[in-house]
Design goal:
alpha/beta; Rossmann fold; globular; 422 residues; 2 domains; 6-stranded parallel sheet; 7-stranded parallel sheet
């Protein structure tokens, strides 16, 4: 099959979109399919055999100057103007403007593809794809309604809450588009239930396809660093629960020699840096970002214990990657995380999301029990080997493509026959 895989942003090493695009596209090509990725900035890292068509935006959220003001010569058309003005009014424009841009590109290339795969763009432009003559499959990793609720609940002021409501304005569009999607893929039963409830979608149109873990994630060959705790999450996103981890770490540090390594880049002066200062733990907390795949694997394997303190996850790929590195885990009993780690205590200890006391107790107990850490790490590694394969993801996704193509062609045939009978 000839596949157009769409992603409005595809950050390579953090955030599920870029990781999903890279590994799914590689394995689809290995199965003999032809894949072309269409992406806005940041562009993905892709493997040999996968083509990239860049769909540039104004890149208004790029580091190190997010919410930047573009120069006049950067504006190319009215879509760029819409993108900038939406940002100026506290909205998030990228899903909508990317969908408009990529729909224009696909309109001239309908004969080049058999199916289009939307990686949670869910912009209005996606509704044009099937009108052009191409069946559309959508991946919805989790409903962003959860991000919205958690962010608004954590907002310190009324002004901030109103600003966040404006930011999440794109959700109305995503719900409308999702309700018209032909086939939706999602990575967990938890996400499926939440999508059905929050988006009002017929469960018959959703299919659960687990995510995979790349073969580069392997157990360490060097000794783990004593007392090192690791977390991989966007530091300033309330949904990731880093504030809970920081408070728990501050309590742990009063009674033992520990360090916290956060694989993320915090917003300068943001909530995470402020909390670190308030807790007076800056000398024991370190941030790591911008590393290569091999460096990331080494870092993940360097910790005695890793923590996933999220308040919600649609799958939590970092959890599975840490399991592949045989790193013992303490995780939140939230969203799809229990599905990923399996029975409590076997591959990870599960704690109540946001409960600092439970987290302190679980981390401390695991740090004090090297034999249990060894058993837990081995069990986690085995679970990944048994369940989470990108090749299996690609095979199941390709089968979903074939179903969507057959369904689309049958629907078009019925429409032609109906018109002929009139």
């Amino acid at each position: 099959m000839r596949v157009a895989l769409l992603s409005y942003r595809s950050k390579p090493h953090c955030g599920g979109q870029g990781i999903y695009v890279r590994h799914l596209s590689r394995e689809l090509v290995a199965l003999g399919h032809d894949v072309e990725v269409f992406s806005g900035q940041p562009y993905p890292v892709l493997d040999e055999g996968v083509r990239l068509t860049k769909v540039p935006s104004l890149d208004l959220y790029r580091e190190p100057d997010p919410f930047r003001v573009p120069r006049l010569r950067e504006f190319r058309d009215l879509v760029d103007v819409e993108e900038f003005l939406t940002m100026c009014t506290a909205g998030f424009p990228e899903p909508k403007t990317f969908s408009t841009r990529v729909a224009r590109l696909l309109k001239d290339r309908v004969d080049d593809f058999d199916v289009v795969h939307d990686n949670q763009v869910l912009g209005y432009g996606m509704l044009e794809v099937e009108k052009m003559g191409l069946p559309l499959v959508t991946t919805l990793h989790h409903p962003i309604t959860f991000d919205k609720r958690i962010d608004i609940a954590a907002a310190p002021t009324l002004r901030k809450r109103l600003s966040l409501r404006r930011w999440y304005g794109f959700l109305r569009m995503q719900v409308k588009v999702a309700r018209q999607a032909r086939k939706i893929l999602t990575p967990s039963e938890s996400s499926k239930r939440d999508i059905v409830r929050d988006f009002g979608i017929d469960p018959a149109r959703l299919e659960v396809i687990l995510l995979g873990v790349d073969d580069v994630f392997v157990p360490p060959t060097k000794p783990r660093v004593p007392g090192r705790i690791l977390a991989m999450a966007s530091a300033d996103a309330p949904m990731k629960g880093i504030a809970t981890l920081l408070e728990a770490f501050a309590k742990l540090r009063t009674e033992r020699d520990v360090e916290l390594l956060l694989v993320t880049k915090p917003v300068p002066g943001g909530r995470t840096e402020q909390l670190i200062d308030t807790l007076a733990i800056g000398d024991s907390v370190r941030f790591v970002h911008g590393v290569s795949d091999s460096e990331l694997v080494e870092i993940m394997g360097s910790a005695e214990v890793a923590c996933v303190p999220s308040l919600y996850e649609g799958f939590s790929l970092p959890t599975a990657e840490l399991m592949a590195c045989a790193t013992p885990l303490v995780v939140s009993r939230a969203g799809a995380i229990p599905e990923v780690v399996g029975p409590d205590g076997e591959c990870a200890d599960l704690v109540t999301p946001g409960d600092v006391g439970e987290l302190v107790e679980a981390l401390g107990a695991l740090l004090d029990d090297p034999e249990r850490r060894e058993r837990m790490g081995s069990a986690g590694r085995q679970r990944v080997m048994d369940m989470f394969s990108w090749r299996a993801v690609a095979k199941a996704t390709a089968a979903a493509y074939e179903e969507a193509i057959d369904d689309y062609r049958a629907e078009r045939s019925d429409e032609r026959e109906t018109r002929a009978d009139r």
